[in-house]
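Good day; I would like, with your permission, to put a structural problem before you. What I wish to show you is a protein chain and, alongside it, a tokenised description of its three-dimensional fold. I would ask you to consider whether the tokens describe a fold that such a sequence might reasonably adopt. You will find the record immediately after this paragraph:
***
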Amino acid sequence: MSAFSKSLRLFLLVLAVFSLFRLGFVLVYPDYFLEAGFADTLWALLHGIRFDASVAMTFLLPFLLLLNLPFRWVTNRWWQQALGWGIFAVLLVYVGILTGDLVYFNHVKRHLAGELLLLGNDYTLLFDMTLTYWRWVLLAGVVVVLLAWFWRQWVRLPVTPNRYGWLVLLLVFLLGAVIIRGSFERKPINLIHAYTSGSSKVANLTLNGVFTAWHSGNQGDKWANFFSDKEALAILGLPDQSYPLRKSYPATGNSRPNVVFVLLESWTPQYIDAFAGKGYGVTPNFDALARDGIMFTNFYAAGQRSIEGIQATLTGVPPLKGLPTLGFGLEATNLTPIGKIARSHGYNTLFLQTSRRNSFYVDKIAQTLGFEHYFGAEDTPPVLDYPDLNGAKFGWDYETYLKLFDSIQNSGGKPFFAYMFTGATHAPYARLPPRFEKYPPCEGENGFYNLLYYADWALGEFMRKAREQAWFDNTVFVFTADHVFANEQSGEFRRKFNTPMLIYAPALYAPRVETRVFSQLDVMPTLLDIMGFAEPFHTFGDSVFRKTTQEAFVNEGGIGGVVTDKGYLKHSYSTRLEAEGEPAALDGMERRLKALAQVTSRLVRENRWAE
């Protein structure tokens, strides 16, 4: 037997152990997993091998490379057995995690994530859990003994040198790298790839606890425990129940307005004349919409990154230090699937972004939340004569608006819900056709102003075409930004998060200026409220048409903040860093900020954010 053949056998045995535990999930939790149906269950069992192989190879590749070194002494018995038992030691760790994952799943209906690191630092808790679940520990011990017996037979098998030794070594390295990536796409495999079916049950059967712990573990901060759980809920005015964030609105009958939501890259009130009146002259179309719409002047982004804006507006989950973001682990938690809800009411659901399809894993996010149609840069060929076609690293707005319009036109008379994320105004700032260069082109502020002028024109062209359609009067257009322009990121605390928000539906809503405090966490419930669904949703936010409190929670790289009508507070969760307001008001803000961090962390980690 060649060294390569022996290495392959050992790796396949490791994968067999992962598959054995996956079957164990079906046997232990049949009511949960078999509900997905035979076809989906079979697909998950097979698709899961991809995730098993990725995480297994991550830690085994060094051993496999050493086993296949192109030297004759590598075939020595001591070398082969030492490395073989080294692989077995890694397998023992896998078995331990997989066993714990099998038990843990019963409590939160998802796999281990960052909790594994927390448990690893609490040896007393580990010992207590071992005593509590001794039957499972015993079963794992039996599995280990059987594995050791098989392993001993295979490790002792003599090997011969690989023919073409250096080429085989290169092959092992390349195969290992491909298996670890788990994908030939630009992005390596991640948790989000298991959720493309839109079913959390299928995703949970596809994943394994080693993979989820490895890909989420680096996010695993300690839980915030500032209050008792009951006190934290009371501070936030939430009921003490399993799913305290559950809310619903009365259905609005058969009238189902269309909704177009646009998340605008880096748009900032300071540069929009309708909001700030500074005369930049780069947003004439948006200014015109604002005059006839509901303009929100105290609206705040939840964070300072695009993915945080996507997460907040789509799910209502605030970004928080120590927790994964959407597309990078948060999807392992049950969330309100807004696309799926809209589809259940006969809506045509569309998701578009100007960037490439898999940028930020947005294609997988869209599938996870139940959107039926998804489009990226690959689906929007250039129409304008751009001087530098590839200059806009995050895509061009105009072509994506054209795709949005065509997709709406092809809705077949069904109501539609569209979510679009723009990107042309993201740095670096591309050169534009001369007619859009209102300011001298450069890489700095002028570049942003010109791209903003172009993005506003593209939006105006879409709205001009929309006004000519029969569906226009029954359509609500909602616009806000993912975060502020880079120049505002170092400004006064509130300005770091203050983004424009506009609801435009002249046939449905009278124009007004809304000065109360709202945030991106209020977007998802607002969209559900507009569409008139009675289905429950889960979030701290509330519809802008129903919200009674004035409060926006924000996140600045792990530093928390809250903005209210009485001032603001910036807090490290241990120390006040910056504040404005009366002492009593600031005390209340601090308590609510800490309670939000604690409740969010607890509900996400225990998979009780949504049902």
Notes: Residues 258-545 form a domain with the Alkaline Phosphatase, subunit A fold (CATH 3.40.720.10). The CA atoms of residues 145 and 335 lie 40 Å apart.
